[in-house]
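Hi R.,

Here are the chain sequences for the assembly we discussed:
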Amino acid sequence: MTPSSPPDLAQRIASLPSPPERAFASDNAAGAHPAVIDAIVAANTGHALAYGADPWTAEFEDRCADLFGRPVGAYLVWNGTGANVMALASALGPADCVVCTEWSHIAVDEAGAPERILGAKLLPLPSADAKLVPEQLEALAHLQGVEHHAQPAVVSLTQCTELGTVYSADEIAALCATAHRMGMVVHLDGARLANACAALGGTRQALRSFTVDAGVDLISFGGTKNGLLGGEAVIVLNPALGRRAKFIRKMVNQLPSKMRFVAAQFNALLEGDVWLANAAHANAMATALYDGVAGLDGVRVGAPPAANSVFPCLPDWAIAPLREWCFFWDWDHAIHQVRWMTAWDTTSDDVSAFLAGVRHLVC
Amino acid sequence: MTPSSPPDLAQRIASLPSPPERAFASDNAAGAHPAVIDAIVAANTGHALAYGADPWTAEFEDRCADLFGRPVGAYLVWNGTGANVMALASALGPADCVVCTEWSHIAVDEAGAPERILGAKLLPLPSADAKLVPEQLEALAHLQGVEHHAQPAVVSLTQCTELGTVYSADEIAALCATAHRMGMVVHLDGARLANACAALGGTRQALRSFTVDAGVDLISFGGTKNGLLGGEAVIVLNPALGRRAKFIRKMVNQLPSKMRFVAAQFNALLEGDVWLANAAHANAMATALYDGVAGLDGVRVGAPPAANSVFPCLPDWAIAPLREWCFFWDWDHAIHQVRWMTAWDTTSDDVSAFLAGVRHLVC
Amino acid sequence: MTPSSPPDLAQRIASLPSPPERAFASDNAAGAHPAVIDAIVAANTGHALAYGADPWTAEFEDRCADLFGRPVGAYLVWNGTGANVMALASALGPADCVVCTEWSHIAVDEAGAPERILGAKLLPLPSADAKLVPEQLEALAHLQGVEHHAQPAVVSLTQCTELGTVYSADEIAALCATAHRMGMVVHLDGARLANACAALGGTRQALRSFTVDAGVDLISFGGTKNGLLGGEAVIVLNPALGRRAKFIRKMVNQLPSKMRFVAAQFNALLEGDVWLANAAHANAMATALYDGVAGLDGVRVGAPPAANSVFPCLPDWAIAPLREWCFFWDWDHAIHQVRWMTAWDTTSDDVSAFLAGVRHLVC
Amino acid sequence: MTPSSPPDLAQRIASLPSPPERAFASDNAAGAHPAVIDAIVAANTGHALAYGADPWTAEFEDRCADLFGRPVGAYLVWNGTGANVMALASALGPADCVVCTEWSHIAVDEAGAPERILGAKLLPLPSADAKLVPEQLEALAHLQGVEHHAQPAVVSLTQCTELGTVYSADEIAALCATAHRMGMVVHLDGARLANACAALGGTRQALRSFTVDAGVDLISFGGTKNGLLGGEAVIVLNPALGRRAKFIRKMVNQLPSKMRFVAAQFNALLEGDVWLANAAHANAMATALYDGVAGLDGVRVGAPPAANSVFPCLPDWAIAPLREWCFFWDWDHAIHQVRWMTAWDTTSDDVSAFLAGVRHLVC
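And here is the predicted structure of the full complex:
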């Protein structure tokens, strides 16, 4: 039963304090990091050959090799859906399919781009926490070799997941081992890879532990949600999958012509590991948000956030006025669950102001 | 017979003057216009909802309605291939095909993206000047209604063309009339729409004359080559083709999340018609380049450039050293033809310096 | 806990009676009905224009109009996967998706053909009995109009289902009403449409009650499992979906050139409603099979079969020897469930002989 | 200038002799060879597992190994478009394209099925005789390795061609050598492979000379036009291309369920090389047809037919009445060219009767 709204609701709404300067809609509502803007300005100097034949892109490729501790294929692209489609296209043959969770961005939030562009089936498996376990892969063995079934060929994990959970390095290593033993490869949808890395130690060593050291084959390396104005990358760790990468990038609409401007943005965040600082900060803000509501009457929250999102259940009557005051998205309407997401530029003041409003309205 | 190289070639090369600051490789080798950079900096202020629910995008949509003199669908996308694929997907049904020329970017330079993402055939027709004529469409009538043939459904014209030629408004109107009479719609690949507009009068009225007034249904409206750091738009003039546009944009990997930064760039060029000034300048620089070589011994050029490219034939021995001195691309190796392309930022000094080098080397 | 095998298992196996002449593997293990063979022989007379411009195809089209009680589009194709893909392609726009159950043949048993050829997502919903209910469609409303999600456009029902259950006419009418209200159309995968019709009354009126009268838009009308040597049809009940059908058939590899031989087969089964007699017989044989094992110790069966398949759970130790004696397929290995399927040519003797073997081995 | 019709045309038409029993529309207007019908009847005996797990299919596979003189992949499919798409899908990676002629069936007559199902570009090259030469492949070298261009990966030759011409074994060997050297593989669209084989000697040794010995990688082996009621096969000569074949067959809608009936038909034609006799006879009938019109006033024919089609140019006024009397298809309307095609069942009487009518009308 839904608790009824308080008799003084109208008054509570009218007397809400000033909302925070930045809302909690999404990390892609944030702008660009100042270093990114500076890098764009600096890169706007004279002519540079298009499509990556420029020094900024070469620098980006070097920085990626450095980041992962070995030579990798590093391909700049426009956006997350594009990165995912490009990575998956590099690993799929005809009649293959992609194993993912029912929450995965590729299955739910990409308007069928994967099926359309890959011409391949996605096989979304159920998961309470948006993570897969090796047993789920093993249970697909009966599909293998049977001509009536699309053949599982790629396991696509999201790190951190669409539910804000984070795979440990060991969990990913176990999934990679199972996938490889079964003849599959592993793709990491890392639209928020930085937040996962921050959650797992916040160092380059941590990044390697759950990617290259764990056996991951391909990564969609997110930049936009971490402070770029726009740009992602596909990282090919398994060289066998990189031979057609440059052609595939063009084929999936993802080859930036003035590539120096995408490269320069990424370089700005990789320099001095601003990307990790950005992510660690966003994660910390989510923890602060969580801590501020965890004890409140009428608000239900689950486990503390692993990364930069909180998924509280609020009193039904509180959601609309709270959103009108400071925007956020619904998550699961049936249980009055919403999503609050922090970004690289969320401030402690934003969190405090928001929590003040929540308490004012709900308690 | 190819003329042999002059005996003093080595000396000529060694004594080449200083090359121009900017080469003539392509208009996508240019950087971004200062107003574009300023607009990005100005747009980087706090949070804004993603995917176009922001004031900059709303402004862009208003500006497009204003530009075309009536309500239009205006969809920001990442790049030219993406714009073309999105536009064509809006107009194609199953078993349809796209009529274009053998020179068309969609057929030659997009790595099969159209066929892959559209699942449709391209039907490239021969053309000496990269332009189609109505008779070529009429000659396709025998395909219509026959189940063995992909059905011509969209005519894709490039304006200005890949050979630097420009359709007149009347020519496009005639093609639209024929296409419509045959049940087809017309798409304009306008990666260099601004240069075409500049060539045809350089006013908004001119733009309308060869687009909305001529009966064009869909446009890929180029921004990158005109001075953006990255961004194009799909303009839907025929409302019947716009109903699925927003879904299609997402499906073809072309929905920018922090869309304000694409919108702000475009707005900067549309404000005060900087886009037309940029294009007119680039065109003028190509004319200057043409005029400077038209009379030279050993250099063959065709008709004066309609837009911003020159396709001269040079002595075979001159191409490599000239390119090493100041970069440009080959066009047709068999006839020693190269392409020189000007950009919004090409200066008269660039042209003079380049011509000086050409004369020094060739004459 | 699995019951252990009986001490005299080896002896039981050795003394199994003669197996039935026909096994229970599938209805596509059966041959062709004699009337079908006769029709092929009769149609093999001189020349006839290819691709359906022949009298046998015209007759088939007339027979379909007669069968459904009004003009319909009737398109002969090769096989079930092809019929499904053709039907769905007729109803899908870009970024659309197909709603089905997790058991559906299109989602599970077609090797990704729908995703590949349609370039569209399938949205498989959970279902205990392989049937959908209107509430499941209504729950998809939140996807509609949101550009990040593939848009539900077609509901594909299987009749009878992959689990051998049958929708009532009212159930299908309710699903059609909901689907149409939400802007979707309804496809019936009727690889075993005849068995469903037999289960629902076994008359042409029954067929109309759950198809044309219920609001179904498109049907894959199965012939192969009903006694053809090979051939299916796509029936377009909603004329708006038929305009591109002939082009689509060719585009999905499904246009038979010597079409008279497919038409003649179908005509033979439609004449005198042999198709319904075949299906009623197959259904009756499944009921006999069910009745014969329903009371047996160690055999668990669910509800009586609605159509022509039985899904019993057997003692684990019995499955392999029983299969070796008379072939059938596993269904759910985890619960020792198998599938026994009858066909138009299964005889009472086949059933008796099989039941004798089951009793001999298991009891 | 077109010659005007004779003053007595009406009278000539009225007094035309009896038309031949069989017209010259196409070899797919013919019925099935009696041995094929007999084989179907014989195969219709009891149950057999579906999808090729039956003795007839095993026999077909053995017969193919025997035919080509070594182990091959032999995959039965429904029709020619399906065979071509399946074969090409086995050899294409993402961003690859298929090189063919402008006359090729895959480019002209398959309603875009290749582009749709393969998601790949076709690159049709000009050709006067519908044959490619190695120099045309070599001229594509500039596309290789450049990310903007779809990558030539498969050369698809039609044997015999759509214009009735036939590649010699040496010509195919030279094309294979060039293709392989450039990293491409070679596909033979052999919808009329038998007619080509008959033209090149009419023995199994001849077949091998222009296929397996010449270096061909994949064949679409036509059956329907050679006397089956319906059925083709994909022959994989290059084992590296066969690993995914069975999955691809299902994915492209081409897996027959009651496969024994397709296998039995093929086996009937392969037994005693009926397939070669059928083809040799059809070719001989085309030669007779050619010889009968070669000298006629008002009829222009080119070189004698290599296989089973003649492409004469007739007086414009003669075409419609002649077609009404005995059907055939137009070929090139602009030059009043038509196509007369013979089949396995064309008789000398058919040819004589037809020639009598032509002479009566035209001379």
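The first helix of chain A runs from residue 9 to 14. Strands of chain A lie at 73-77, 96-101, 121-125, 151-158, 185-190, 218-222, 232-236, 309-310, 329-332, 337-341.

Let me know if anything looks off.

Best,
T.
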